[in-house]
């Protein structure tokens, strides 16, 4: 291949981008020199890397030229994946390191057989910890393990132990340990510096200002690091006691690592303090012999063996006094380095955040309840005027006084009241966390205290861009605060996408050729889901049951049925679907690319199934311009035009889901079909430039979905997101959504979902 | 479709089935019966719906006739048909008719699986008319006081094509079943599989974990039934780990990552 041909190929691959020739020329020159197969290997990765980052792709080519020969061809995709995820986590510089030093940073670790890279076991571990905890927790990487109670941080690799299995077990143990901290309330322990031997139980959550946070308590001591580690150690001991009961399998396996672990982490040069701590570790965590100096301590052995949460701080004080040496520099024992640390600031911030979410959700529920039970009947409502000030008034003029919050309490306490299951669960959670439901929660809901409720700022009045030459359609929007609609609030435009030429669709079809064959076959099967229908007036075969029955009837003097045949019948699938696709700017990059890929695959297989379907993209800015992009009309055949439009999908502006849902369900309603399905694909919270945010947006979305369901449309949502799961069930309703945290799985999961829903 | 008419006595449950109440479902069941109302049980698979029905039938002293619904089930399959025998024809009652005549309990399991045109035959039985027209006999049966209609379905992860018609759904008193809380479920598993309570508790712990994976792609976690199966295997001398693998884990999913994580859970719990 000559240089020109090579360059041409390159430009085709990155189309429609047009990188500068001077950027490309030098690179191409080197690539041309490569043997054919290596060049192909490099070029194959361009469509993978280019959409994520152009400059990464260029450096991949530039530096990859020299490295590609040393990487076994079957490892290339894995290498590229590693580069991409490094890029996403740590940026270009670090990702380049992985390209240039492929040998040390990619291949060598792969060869070290005992080393576990978290990446390789991440899914297994994620599902494991989610199962153990029963919560939608997450895992991320950090050299020293810790948790903020929602995300668990673990090191990227572990290789202390001699075998892969053992190192993998360490990951599992570390994750469980940190979950245990959260579960057993480590982060709610607080110390009172004035009275060092007493500790408030977490149930007395007073004013945070008055509480003594542990990190402050530690810093007041001479050696805060030592204190923090003693604390960590005692808490680890406490968690391990619990694990012995709850997960004995894990405990047994971990204890078997003891001697090797202690040997591997032994570090004789440590000072006196550190070695005392190491002895303490062996004693507390592995039941090793009790060191002599410890026997002198005046603390009951029972507490030593099984401290409760209240014992931790007193125990810490005693041990600290024993161990601390003012003149010696303290160094962390390696074992603790492996097991991790506590980050109280992050944990309490996260706990606080979750509390806030729970509180807001609770208040939302109460509001709904209040409206239902009529305690807001006196409220003056001026519906129909789409005016910002109006809502503020609606909130503030509500029936005041404490009487209402006590009324609310009564409603809740009354066993006769039927509470939504979600609210009951939520109340349980709050009580578990705080011991009771604080009065402020009630007063916030009754609208007296301004503190509890976050008030949304009013939309900035700027030049609102509209499409002058188009009329648009006006739709209402739900305002949960007034419990009513804002009339004709949003203006909807259905628009064409500006056409872009690109090879995206072709590349996708090519990339997934194998998968497509499989999927097509499945959908073919779905379509020809033929079955025999019995008791037909005509058909290919006799229905023996029917004949016997008819004969019986005849004998008995009843006129026999003439429906005596079986017929092979195609399953009548009278299902029409609209896929509503989020085109907001947050889908920029990887997410957007995969959504597009998913659409291509979907179209291919839907074409086989033969069910009518449409695709609408949505995005916009402010209520005055909610744009819906027609990608495929319900009955439009699948052809090049659709390819063009999918090619042209680009991240645009904001995510105002409500109007899009209403518009799409309107469309769907006007289509004649027995079953109608509305599938929304989005990457996160609904949000617009104006005050369409937070609860308001969630509640409007929820309402729009309820309206759709009310008119007999089945709704289903697919959300691609990495965090903030709390609002999902509230917004979509349990069982009506799936949550995909691994974007690569979107195409398969989406197609699977369609198959399951309509199978 | 051949019909072997079993005698009704066979359907009478003489020994008290083991059933641990989770809430006030027994009182509700009895009251529903006394008020001559039909009963709908909904809940995930293997959570005790069928067992509850058996218990209720025993408690009320009525025979229980169970029909598992499928999409080929016709009205005649429920109501009855003429058969030819030698030179004669004989009418054979379907299970529904038999239950009505005998004042028994007819339980239609997985009702959503039946075609909608079949389910409508229960409509007149399931409202205050409580009657069953048998067109071919020209009869209209009025259900006696003792007759009760029960149906069940699993509202979990389901096809939009299979939903219970509103007009069907709104005839029933609905009891919602879910897996009992851990200690209760452990007692059930221990009792049913004949294993000790501690082992049962661990099995339940495993199930609870698997139920936490719903949003990670496991539509339904391990049911009580699977736990009992695993328990029975252990009782027969299979090692705990293997029993959990073949009795629980492998029955839940084929996804390699989910499988992997479930194995980790098994290893952590036992
Ligand atoms: N409350 C309970 N008391 C006693 N046994 C129970 C209870 N709940 C469940 N079981 C046990 O669980 C097993 C499964 O229950 P059952 O067969 O009733 O499930 P189901 O809800 O009918 O499931 P499906 O929908 O799959 O038919 C029963 O065999 C029984 O041993
Ligand atoms: Mg059953």
Could you describe the 3D structure shown?
The complex is a heterodimer of chains A (759) and B (270). Chain A is an alpha/beta fold. Chain A has five domains: 3-114, no CATH class; 116-345, no CATH class; 351-453; 504-523 and 573-758, Rossmann fold; 532-571, no CATH class. Chain A has an eight-stranded mixed sheet, with helices on both faces. In chain A, strands 2-4-3 form a three-stranded mixed sheet, covered by helices on one side. A three-stranded antiparallel sheet of chain A has the order 10-12-11. In chain A, strand 17 (713-720), helix 31 (727-732) and strand 18 (737-740) form a beta-alpha-beta unit. In chain A, helix 27 runs parallel beside helix 32 (746-758). Chain A is globular and about 100 Å long. The relative contact order of chain A is 0.06. Chain B has eleven helices and nine strands. In chain B, strand 6 and strand 7 form a beta hairpin. Helices cover 40% and strands 16% of the residues of chain B. Chain B is elongated and about 65 Å long. In chain B, 44% of the residues are buried. Chain B folds into two domains: 2-176, P-loop containing nucleotide triphosphate hydrolases (Rossmann fold, 3-Layer(aba) Sandwich); 182-269. In chain B, strands 2-5-8-1-9 form a five-stranded parallel sheet. In chain B, strands 3-4 form a two-stranded antiparallel sheet. Chain B is α/β, with parallel strands linked by helices. The termini of chain B are far apart. The complex binds adenosine-5'-triphosphate and magnesium ion (MG). Adenosine-5'-triphosphate binds at residues 18-20, 22, 43, 45-51, 109, 154, 180, 188, 192, 224-225, 228 of chain B.
């Amino acid at each position: 291949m000559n240089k020109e041909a090579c360059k041409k190929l390159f430009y085709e691959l990155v189309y429609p981008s047009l990188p500068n020739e001077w950027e490309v020329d030098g690179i191409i020159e080197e690539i041309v020199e490569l043997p054919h197969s290596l060049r192909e290997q490099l070029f194959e990765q361009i469509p993978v890397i280019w959409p994520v980052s152009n400059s990464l792709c260029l450096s991949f080519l530039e530096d990859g030229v020299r490295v590609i020969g040393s990487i076994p061809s079957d490892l290339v995709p894995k290498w590229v994946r590693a580069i991409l995820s490094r890029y996403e986590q740590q940026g270009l510089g670090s990702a380049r390191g992985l390209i240039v030093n492929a040998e040390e940073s990619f291949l060598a670790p792969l060869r070290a057989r005992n080393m576990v890279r978290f990446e390789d076991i991440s899914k297994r571990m994620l599902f494991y910890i989610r199962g153990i905890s029963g919560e939608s927790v997450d895992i991320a990487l950090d050299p020293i393990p810790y948790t903020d109670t929602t995300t668990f941080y673990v090191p990227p690799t572990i290789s202390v132990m001699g075998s892969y299995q053992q190192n993998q077990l360490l990951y599992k143990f570390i994750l469980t340990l940190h979950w245990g901290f959260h579960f057993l309330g480590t982060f709610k322990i607080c110390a009172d510096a004035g009275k060092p031997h007493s500790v408030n139980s977490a149930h007395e959550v007073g004013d945070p200002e008055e509480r003594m946070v542990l990190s402050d308590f530690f810093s007041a001591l001479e050696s805060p690091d030592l204190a923090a580690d003693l604390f960590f150690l005692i808490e680890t001991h406490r968690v391990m006691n619990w694990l012995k009961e709850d997960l004995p399998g894990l405990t047994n396996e971990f204890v078997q690592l003891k001697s090797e672990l202690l040997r591997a982490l032994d570090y004789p040069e440590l000072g006196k303090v550190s070695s005392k701590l190491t002895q303490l570790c062996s004693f507390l965590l592995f039941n090793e012999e009790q060191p002599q100096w410890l026997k002198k301590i005046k603390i009951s052995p029972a507490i030593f063996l099984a401290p409760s949460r209240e014992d931790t701080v007193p125990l810490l004080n005693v041990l600290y006094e024993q161990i601390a040496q003012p003149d010696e520099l303290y160094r962390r024992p390696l074992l603790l380095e492996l097991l991790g640390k506590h980050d109280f600031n992050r944990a309490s911030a996260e706990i606080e955040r979750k509390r806030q979410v729970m509180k807001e959700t609770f208040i939302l529920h109460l509001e709904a309840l209040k409206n239902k039970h009529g305690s807001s009947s006196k409220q003056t409502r001026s519906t129909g005027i789409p005016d910002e000030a109006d809502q503020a008034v609606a909130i503030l003029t509500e029936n005041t006084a404490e009487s209402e919050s006590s009324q609310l309490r009564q409603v809740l306490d009354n066993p006769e009241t039927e509470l939504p299951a979600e609210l009951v669960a939520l109340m349980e959670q709050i009580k578990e966390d705080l011991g009771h439901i604080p009065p402020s929660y009630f007063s916030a809901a009754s609208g007296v205290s301004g503190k509890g409720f976050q008030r949304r700022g009013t939309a900035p009045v700027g030049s609102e861009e509209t499409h002058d030459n188009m009329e648009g359609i006006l739709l209402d929007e739900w305002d949960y605060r007034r419990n009513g609609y804002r009339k004709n609030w949003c203006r909807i435009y259905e628009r064409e996408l500006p056409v872009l030429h690109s090879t995206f669709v072709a590349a996708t079809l090519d990339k997934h050729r194998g998968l497509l064959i499989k999927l097509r076959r499945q959908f073919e099967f779905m379509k020809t889901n033929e079955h025999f229908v019995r008791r037909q007036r005509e058909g290919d075969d006799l229905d023996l049951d029917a004949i016997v029955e008819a004969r019986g009837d005849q004998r008995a003097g009843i006129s026999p049925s003439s429906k005596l045949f079986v017929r092979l019948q195609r399953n009548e699938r009278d299902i029409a679907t609209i896929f509503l696709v989020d085109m907001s700017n947050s889908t920029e990059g990887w997410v957007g690319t995969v959504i597009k890929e998913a659409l291509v695959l979907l179209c291919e297989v839907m074409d086989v199934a033969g069910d009518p379907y449409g695709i609408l993209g949505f995005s916009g800015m402010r209520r005055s311009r909610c744009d819906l992009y027609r990608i495929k009309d319900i009955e439009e055949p699948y052809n090049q035009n659709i390819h063009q439009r999918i090619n042209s999908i680009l991240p645009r502006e904001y995510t105002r889901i409500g109007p899009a849902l209403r518009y799409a369900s309107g469309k769907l309603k006007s289509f004649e079909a027995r079953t109608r399905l509305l599938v929304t694909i989005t990457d996160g919270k609904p949000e617009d430039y104006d005050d369409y945010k937070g609860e308001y947006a969630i509640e409007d979305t929820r309402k729009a979905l309820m309206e759709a369901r009310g008119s007999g449309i089945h709704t289903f949502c697919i959300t691609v997101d990495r965090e903030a799961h709390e609002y999902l069930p509230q917004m979509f309703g349990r069982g009506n959504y799936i949550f995909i945290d691994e974007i690569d799985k979107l195409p398969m999961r989406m197609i699977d979902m369609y198959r399951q829903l309509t199978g | 479709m051949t019909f072997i008419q079993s005698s009704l006595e066979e359907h009478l449950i003489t020994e008290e089935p083991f059933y641990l109440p989770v809430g006030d479902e027994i009182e509700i069941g009895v009251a529903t019966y006394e008020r001559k109302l039909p009963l709908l049980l909904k809940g995930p698979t293997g959570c005790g719906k069928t067992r509850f029905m058996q218990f209720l039938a025993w408690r009320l002293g009525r025979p229980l006739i169970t029909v598992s619904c499928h999409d080929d089930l016709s009205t005649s399959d429920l109501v009855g048909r003429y058969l030819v025998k030698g030179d004669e024809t004989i009418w054979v009652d379907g299970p529904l008719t038999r239950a009505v005549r005998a004042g028994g309990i007819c339980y239609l399991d997985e009702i959503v699986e039946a075609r909608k045109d079949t389910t409508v035959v229960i409509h007149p039985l399931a409202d205050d008319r409580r009657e069953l027209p048998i067109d071919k006999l020209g009869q209209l049966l009025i259900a006696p006081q003792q007759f009760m209609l029960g149906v069940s379905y699993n509202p979990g992860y389901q096809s939009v094509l299979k939903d219970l018609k509103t007009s069907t759904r709104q005839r029933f008193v609905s009891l919602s079943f879910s897996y009992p809380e851990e200690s209760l479920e452990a007692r059930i598993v221990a009792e049913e599989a004949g294993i000790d309570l501690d082992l049962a508790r661990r099995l339940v712990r495993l199930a609870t974990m698997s139920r936490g994976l719903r949003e990670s792609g496991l539509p339904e976690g391990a049911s009580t039934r699977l736990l009992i199966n695993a328990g029975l295997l252990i009782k027969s001398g299979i090692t705990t780990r293997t029993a959990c693998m073949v009795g629980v884990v492998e029955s839940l999913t084929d996804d390699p990552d989910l499988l992997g994580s479930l194995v980790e859970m098994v290893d952590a719990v036992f």
